[in-house]
Design goal:
eight-stranded mixed β-sheet, Arc Repressor Mutant, subunit A, Endonuclease, Chain A, about 250 residues, about 20% strand, alpha+beta, 9 helices, two-stranded antiparallel sheet
């Protein structure tokens, strides 16, 4: 059993048992319920629970060979249709969910976004709040941020530039950081480079009264946001203490 494929099938919404059953059926072709149950080592009762679930999803169909009933896995391309159907359902559901969201909910003092997908919520909120001339201050690691969710972040940068948010970025004075500056391409951004390096897998962003700490690692990218006007003021003061000492260098 290919564990990697099973894991990927779980990521698109199948349970582990459903994924194993579909993959097994795909491998051996038409088979009886008992044969499939033995192959994935589940009880007779459980196999008759799993098969209807896969039939309902369109991943397995019933067929007959002579007088006997068999089950046959659908073409894997049906998975694309399954995802599209789920996506459409979610898009239709979002407005209804928003209407149920409490309007008097307060923003927590500290919010933890555990991965790049969760972090998208903060970036979308930022875009919705941003106005022309707003300022974002960034201690950049000089690489790694955009790669963690590149298509989304490229779109985020484009939207931010279109609005007219002005970025100021301090990055390590290295060839890698300058190459990263050229790759990210922030038209409304000004970069300055510091010879005093910090940890290359961490960044700090200042946006209005929010201080955002980001850890940039391949398998552990996350962000902690502290909403505090006082702490943001301290960090903004510290940022400009260094910024004003560095040589200006515009992003081309």
């Amino acid at each position: 059993m290919n564990k990697e494929i099973v894991k990927k099938l779980e990521q698109i919404g199948l349970s582990e048992s459903e994924a194993k059953l579909y993959l097994t059926n795909l491998n051996i072709g038409p088979a009886s319920a008992i044969q499939l149950g033995r192959k994935i080592n589940v009880s007779r009762q459980m196999i008759y629970v799993l098969l209807p679930q896969l039939i309902e999803k369109g991943l397995v169909r019933q067929t007959r060979i002579g007088a006997r009933q068999y089950y046959e896995a659908a073409n894997p391309e049906i998975l694309v249709d399954l995802i599209e159907k789920s996506k459409k359902t979610i898009i239709e559901l979002v407005p209804a969910l928003k209407s149920q969201q409490a309007t008097n909910a307060t923003v927590p003092l500290i919010t933890v976004y555990e991965n790049p997908i969760a972090m998208r919520e903060w970036y979308r909120k930022m875009i919705n709040e941003a106005k022309k001339g707003d300022e974002m201050l960034i201690w950049s690691a000089g690489g790694g941020w955009i790669e963690s969710d590149e298509p989304f972040y490229q779109d985020f940068i484009a939207q931010k530039n279109k609005i007219g948010v002005e970025d100021k970025l301090i990055a390590p004075d290295t060839e890698e950081a300058r190459a990263y500056r050229d790759k990210v391409r922030v038209p409304n951004g000004e970069w300055r480079f510091s010879k005093e390096h910090w940890h290359k897998s961490s960044e700090l962003w200042l946006w209005k009264d929010e201080v955002c700490y980001q850890t940039l690692r391949q398998n552990a990218t996350n962000m902690i946001v502290i909403k505090s006007a006082d702490l943001a003021a301290i960090e903004r003061f510290n940022f400009y203490q260094i910024w004003n000492k560095l040589e200006p260098e515009k992003n081309g």
